[in-house]
Design goal:
With 189 residues, the chain is an all-beta fold. It has no helices and 14 strands. The protein folds into two domains: 78 residues, Immunoglobulin-like; 66 residues, no CATH class. The chain starts with 28 loop residues before the first strand and ends in a 12-residue tail after the last strand.
């Protein structure tokens, strides 16, 4: 007949006399990259941004789950503006730690003049004339409109009025003028 050996395991007792397992109350450790400032890619309203995904560690030496909000993974396209990215580390005991950094995309590219036509010649029969000309056409990688319709009211007398639509680093300029009336034409004032 075989004889069985008895094995005794020690118990950890806590106040109140109940057995307990050791609990982890310390949150994991996680560190995010520094804030990132990026310029838009050429002729685009976005920037392709990369960063090192943070690793998390825990005092228990066990695996730590890392989530990111919003859900991004590098490299990532970001539009012009600012976005905060937060990484959340959770250990097996449910303790959490988080870190955040911002990605700021700036537009340093000037708009482009696509079309800038000279204003038309105007022959006025009255003492003044309303003049409207084609709006200069610009484009910008940001998608923001950079020019508005241009118009003027000119009076006879050889005056010169300028139209202008000036984006950040470019300009579309043109001059308009009505010639002075010949001396033999009587003007009503």
């Amino acid at each position: 007949m075989r004889q069985r050996k008895k094995l005794f395991l020690p118990r950890v007792m806590v106040a109140g006399g109940l057995p307990s397992a050791k609990t982890d109350a310390e949150p994991p450790w996680i560190q995010c990259p520094a804030d990132i400032v990026a310029e838009t890619d050429e002729r685009r309203g976005t920037a392709n941004v990369s960063w090192n995904v943070p690793n998390a560690t825990d005092n228990s030496k066990e695996e730590v789950v890392v989530q990111v909000k919003p859900v991004y993974s590098p490299p990532q396209l970001f539009p012009i503006g600012k976005e905060t990215i937060t990484y959340i580390a959770t250990d097996r005991s449910g303790n959490q730690a988080n870190c955040s950094f911002t990605v700021t995309v700036i537009d340093t590219e000037p708009p482009v003049i696509d079309r800038c036509r000279s204003p038309p010649t105007v022959q006025a029969t009255d003492g003044e004339a309303a003049v409207v000309w084609e709006v200069p056409q610009f484009s910008d990688n940001s998608g923001i409109s950079v020019a508005e319709a241009t118009k003027a009211r000119l009076s006879r007398g050889g005056g010169r009025t300028w139209m202008s639509a000036i984006p950040m680093n470019g300009a579309c300029l043109g001059g308009l003028g009505l010639p002075a009336l010949p001396p033999w034409v009587q003007q009503d004032r």
